Amino acid sequence: MRLTQEEFAIAARWETNMQTAIRSRYLRNVGRTALERLVSIYERISGERRHINPNCAACVAELLQRLGAVYFADKAERERANAEPGRAEPGRERAEEEQR
Length: 100
What we know:
mainly alpha
């Protein structure tokens, strides 16, 4: 997993935007503040400095596509880790105890 838990939670807020950018090559506005957060996350995971002009739709879409690829790979990895045998899902143990 390349994203920290905090970064994953931040990126999750714009999951729909990243999904749209990847699948449809269409851009939904994320806002300037959100863009700054997403750029800083991308810079940390990629190791490269990026200056994104918030008025350049192609630039923002490319960032969302690249960050989205990492985000969805991390999401799939986290889901696999939670589904492994012997690893209970959060709250599942408590629900099983209440049934007894």
